[in-house]
Amino acid sequence: MQGEAGRRRQWRTGGAWLLPCLVAIIGPAHGQTLPRPGWSLSAQLGPGWTSNPNDLPGRQKGDAYWNWQVGLSYRHPLWDGAALTSSVNTGSDWYARERDAGSNRLSGSLSFSQAWRGATLSLGITARTSMDQPLRAHDEASQDVSLGLSRPITLAPDWTLIPSLGAARRFYQNGTKNDVRFRSGLVLARKWNAWTWRLGGTASYLLEDNTPILPRIRDRNWSLFLSSSYEWEKDREIGLRLAYARTYSTYAPNRNRSVTLAPQVSATFRF
User: Fold this and answer.
1) How far from 255 is each of 53, 183, 206, CA to CA, in Å?
2) Euclidean distance between the first and final Cα of the chain, in Å?
3) Which of 14, 94, 98, 232 has the fewest CB atoms inside 10 Å of its own CB, making it the most exposed?
4) How far is Cα 262 from Cα 242, in angstroms, rounded to an integer?
5) Which strand (E) or helix (H) includes residue 5?
6) What is the pLDDT of residues 114-170, one digit of tens each?
7) How confident is residue 18, by pLDDT bands cut at 50, 70 and 90?
8) pLDDT tens digits for 37-77?
9) Rounded mean pLDDT of the chain?
10) Are 247 and 239 contacting, i.e. CB atoms less than 8 angstroms apart?
11) Integer angstrom CA distances of residue 199 from 22, 46, 124, 260
């Protein structure tokens, strides 16, 4: 069912030659001192609970899950404010009761970012695939190319407002459908000693094509979240996130809403 598969929609794309060629042709500015290239290893794990593990319409029974993610990335500065970052990420969601809601994921990405007057523009390509929780069946694999823009705005000491915009084009490997997505977000962050509080929300729009029998599916989603994190050491923190999400769709099985509560521990190691 498309509504059930929507929870596992994956991102993947081709054209990985474009950004390396751009780097080789342009190169860093003459005589400019750039930050050193570097690796980073990130890890995140913790339990969680969601009111709608399968993202289905109607009233559902909640379920607890365990989440873990590990990522390895390499960042190479290009010129002033610009960088090329490649990364590999893997992770899983394992549910206690709804085992068909769980997944095991693997993805690789390449992204270019450029900072200008406080804003950051990013262009990325990602290839992603996944398997079900028991590792017996292959879920959807896909490709995507995405464009994003964000700009932190300092409102007062320790208060920051972060608006963001994004667009993406996704290509499914099995050729059944493709889609285009648009996303906007707004986050208010408050820093207090080792604590950081965040209140934010997102709104997104999805349009599917390659659907010759059904009308083109249109999904509208919005979400709100409140989170708190405590950083006891640089790049080491523990956090708690509460989120509410709702999806409206022209295709009834895609309409759903959920509440999620997730305490997690995360760390980043740079070398």
Assistant:
1) 14, 18, 13
2) 44
3) 232
4) 7
5) helix 2-6
6) 999 999 999 999 999 999 999 998 888 999 999 999 999 999 999 999 999 999 999
7) very low
8) 999 999 999 999 999 999 999 888 999 999 999 999 999 99
9) 87
10) no
11) 38, 21, 26, 15
Structure tokens at 129: 């695939």
| Count of residues making up the chain | 271
How many other β-carbons are positioned within 10 Å of the β-carbon of residue 152?
A: 14
Which amino acid is residue 198, in one-letter code? Answer: R
- CA pseudo-torsion sign 191, 196, 199, 205: positive
Residues whose CB falls within 8 Å of the CB of residue 99, separated by 6 or more in sequence, listed in order: 133, 134
Handedness of CA 130, 132, 138, 142 (dihedral sign): negative
Angle at the Cα of 118 (from 42 to 12), degrees rounded to 5? 45
Q: What pLDDT was estimated at residue 16?
A: 35
Cα–Cα distance between 140 and 130 in angstroms, integer? 7
Calpha distance 167→147 (Å, rounded): 5
Alpha-carbon distance of 224 to 185, in angstroms, equals: 10
Give the tokens for residue 102: 């769980």
Q: Which tokens belong to 4?
A: 């059930």
Euclidean distance between CA atoms 144 and 206, whole angstroms: 14
Which of 2, 13, 15 shows the shortest CA–CA distance to 177? Answer: 2
Contacts of 72 (CB under 8 A, 6+ apart): 39, 40, 41, 42, 87, 88, 89
